[in-house]
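QA checklist item 7 of 12: single-chain prediction sanity check.
[x] sequence parsed
[x] length recorded as 341
[x] structure emitted
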Amino acid sequence: MHVALSVIGLDRISTSFALALKRYQSQPKAQHTFTIAGSDPSPQAMKAAEKLGAIDKSNRKPSKAAESADLVIVKRPPGSLAETYAQLGPALKPGAVVLDLSDLKEPVIALARQHFPANERGANLAYVVGLTPIVNASGLYAGEAGPEAASADLLDGAECLIMPDAQCPSEAIRLAEDVIRLAGGVPRFMDPAEHDALTAATEQLPALLGAALFYALQQSAGWPDLRRMVNPTLALAFQSLRTQTPNDLHVVFTHNRANLARHLDGVLGVLSELRAALAAGDSDKLAAFLALVGREWEKWDGKRHSGKWEEAPQIEKMPGPFASMGGFLTMPRKKQGDDED
C-alpha cells in the first residue's frame, strides 16, 4: 500500500518519524511505501530535512503540502497551532488522518473540530489523533531540537502516547498504532486531559523555571560578568527560550496554569528548605539531601534506560527537617548514640 504523507513542522521529532518510515520502506519485506512532503516556515528546516532524505518534496504552505495527503503529521509551536489548523483544515481530503505531536492535546482537538471538513450533520470527515513520542534513552540528553538532529532510530523501542479525539473512528486510531510500530515505537493510550496535566510537570515546569532563572540572573548585579561565563550547564537550562517564542510559552503556561501552579508550589517549598540549610551552613542536611536525590535519580535513570517500569517501592521517607514536604524531600535522622562529627 502506498501512503501520501505530509509533515507540517519539521523538527527533531517529526523529522525522525519521517526517517523511521523511510527506513521501514527500505526493508525487503515492507508492505507499505511512503511519499513524504514537508512544510515549515523555515526554508533552512526544509532543506535540512531534504538533505537527510526524510522528505521527498517541500512547500512552505501547509495547505499545499497536505492537500493530497492520506496521513499528516503536525508538529508546530503552541502559538502557531490556531493558524496552522485554520490553513490545514480546508485542504484535507475526506478520510485523512492527522497525527498531532504538539505539546498540548485538548486545544488541538478543539481546533480540529472547528476547522476540519464535516458532513451535513457536522461530523468531521478528517480525524485527529494526538501523539507524544517519548524518545529512547539514546536521545534523551541531546539539546538540539532542529531537523538536523533527527535520527531514524530515535523512537526505536520507545513508548509513544496516543490521545485520540473521543469522536475519532477506530480505523483512524488503528492507523496511528500501525504508524508508531512501523517507526519502531510502542503504542500506549492516554486520555488527552490527563496528558496535558502531566506535561505541566515534564514540559512547562522546566520551561518556566528556565525563564525565571534567566530573568533572575539577568537582573543581578553580577550579570555583566555572568553573561560571559555561560557554558552548557546553564545554557541547557535556558533551552525553552531558544526553541519557543514568548507567545508559545504564554499559550502553554496559560492552558496548564492550575497544574503548573501546583507543581511550582512543590518546587518553591523545596527551594525554601534548601535556602534555609545553606544559610545556616548545615552541611549535614545538604549532604543528606543530595545523597537522597542521587539515589532516587539513579533508580529513575536506570529504569528510563531499561524501559522496565515495574512498580517501584515507596520513595524513601524519613522524619527530618524536610518532612513537611510530604516525602518529596526528607532527611535521615541520626540514631541515638551516634557520635557527632
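[x] summary fact logged: The mean pLDDT is 88.
[ ] second reviewer sign-off
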